[in-house]
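FORM 12-B: Structure-to-Sequence Request
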C-alpha cells in the first residue's frame, strides 16, 4: 500500500446540477494519464485531481471512455515524472489470493482495505452513469470482499506485488465488491492513450454470455454467446447469423467465462479485421467468414 499510494489520485467532479462527486483513479503514465471508471466522471462539467502529498488541486480532462466496460481515462496536464502503477498479468489471477484496494487521498473513509478474490469471471452490476436508477451488468469482473464505496470507486485493486489486477467499481450490492478485470481494461486504456480515442470491433449483434447458469437455462454447454438481436446490414446479418445462434469461437479464440465475446472483441480484434466465426444452430456447427465493423462503444 505504501509503495502504490503515491500513484493513486482522487477525482472531484462538478455536475451541471451543482452536485459534486468524488472518486478515485490511478496513474498509468508518468505524463499524467489516469485510469478510473465512468461513474466517477459521468455528467461532469469540471474535473479536478488531487495527488498524494500535494495540496494543490490540478485540472484534469476526460480523454475517452467505454460505458460497456466502465473504463475511463482522464489526463492531468502540465505534470511530468509522476509515479505510476504497473498492470498485473490477468492469467495469474487466483481464487483466494490476497488483494488490496486503494482509494485516493481525499477519501474520508478507509484509504486501504484488504480482502481476497472471492470469484473470477463474474457478472457484476453497477448503476448506469447516465441513469442512476438503472443497473448495468458488467461481464468478466473480479469479485472480492475488500470493501469499497463511492470514493474508492475507480481506484486500483492490487495484488501483493502492487500490480493492478482490476479497477474498483461501486456496486449497489453491500455484500460484495467488484473490480473491472485488467484483461478487459488494459487494451482499451492503451488504445486511448496511444490514439486519443477508442474504437472497438463489433459483429453487429447484441448477445448474452453463456455462463454456468445461463447455459443450464438454455440447455447449452458453458461458454459462448447467445445471439439476442442482429443489427440489419451489420457484419453478422450479412454473414447470415441469426437470433438464437450461439457463437462459440472467433478465429482460434474459444469463448468461455474467462474469454467473453465483448472482451475478446476489444482485446484481440480491430475494426475492419476479417474473422472466421464458428457458431451453433439447431445442434449443428457452422463457420462463416466476415469483416468486423467498428466504432465508439455506445452508452
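FORM 12-B RESPONSE
SEQUENCE OUT:
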Amino acid at each position: 500500500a505504501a509503495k502504490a499510494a503515491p500513484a493513486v489520485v482522487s477525482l472531484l467532479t462538478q455536475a451541471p446540477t451543482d452536485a459534486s462527486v468524488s472518486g478515485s483513479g490511478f496513474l498509468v503514465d508518468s505524463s499524467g494519464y489516469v485510469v478510473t471508471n465512468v461513474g466517477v466522471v459521468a455528467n461532469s462539467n469540471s474535473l479536478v485531481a488531487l495527488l498524494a502529498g500535494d495540496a494543490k488541486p490540478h485540472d484534469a480532462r476526460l480523454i475517452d471512455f467505454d460505458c460497456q466496460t466502465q473504463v475511463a481515462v482522464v489526463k492531468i496536464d502540465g505534470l511530468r515524472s509522476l509515479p505510476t502503477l504497473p498492470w498485473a498479468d490477468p492469467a495469474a489471477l487466483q481464487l483466494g489470493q490476497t488483494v488490496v484496494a486503494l482509494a485516493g487521498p481525499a477519501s474520508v473513509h478507509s484509504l486501504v482495505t484488504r480482502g481476497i478474490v472471492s470469484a473470477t469471471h463474474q457478472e457484476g452490476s453497477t448503476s448506469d452513469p447516465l441513469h442512476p436508477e438503472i443497473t448495468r451488468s458488467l461481464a468478466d469482473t473480479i469479485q472480492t470482499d475488500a470493501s469499497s464505496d463511492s470514493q474508492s470507486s475507480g481506484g486500483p485493486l492490487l495484488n501483493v506485488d502492487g500490480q493492478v489486477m482490476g479497477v474498483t467499481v461501486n456496486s449497489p450490492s453491500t455484500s460484495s465488491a467488484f473490480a473491472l478485470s485488467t484483461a478487459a481494461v488494459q487494451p482499451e486504456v492503451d488504445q486511448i492513450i496511444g490514439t486519443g480515442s477508442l474504437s472497438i470491433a463489433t459483429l453487429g449483434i447484441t448477445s448474452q454470455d453463456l455462463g454456468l447458469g445461463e447455459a443450464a437455462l438454455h440447455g447449452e454447454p458453458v461458454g459462448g454467446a447467445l445471439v439476442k438481436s442482429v443489427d440489419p446490414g451489420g457484419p453478422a446479418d450479412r454473414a447470415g447469423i441469426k437470433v438464437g445462434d450461439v457463437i462459440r469461437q472467433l478465429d482460434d479464440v474459444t469463448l468461455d467465462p474467462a474469454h467473453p465475446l465483448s472482451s475478446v472483441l476489444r482485446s484481440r480484434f480491430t475494426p475492419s479485421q476479417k474473422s472466421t466465426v464458428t457458431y451453433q444452430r439447431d445442434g449443428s456447427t457452422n463457420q462463416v467468414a466476415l469483416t468486423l465493423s467498428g466504432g465508439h462503444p455506445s452508452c
